[in-house]
Amino acid sequence: MLLFLFYASPDKVFNFLLLIICGNLSRAKYKFREQGILITKVYYCPHHPEITGECSCRKPHPGMIMQAEQEFNLNLAWSVLIGDKISDIEAGKNAGVGINILVKPDSIPECLTTFFNKKD
After folding, report:
1. Residue-wise pLDDT tens digits, 38-47
2. What are the residues facing 107 on neighbouring strands?
């Protein structure tokens, strides 16, 4: 599972979005819902390489990231991607995401909770 934490609009104003890009839709939604984290949109790949063959959206291909870029007019160079698999980071790099962070598996919801509850 990977996600975008924020992006910068052309006027350099930072806007926060939570866009999840994953292979298993229900797992991602429930993990974040349990933490009380609002999800802007979830993208998932409905294909399976053994059944439908290769596709452009399955990580490490950047198809779903590019779809999010167009839908939300993202500035990928100013975006942050957090992933818990190497394929997440590869997808971010393939899409031109500016900052790609690899965290321990299944720790993304806790990372977000810590980020949004920071008292600075």
Report:
1. 788 888 888 8
2. none
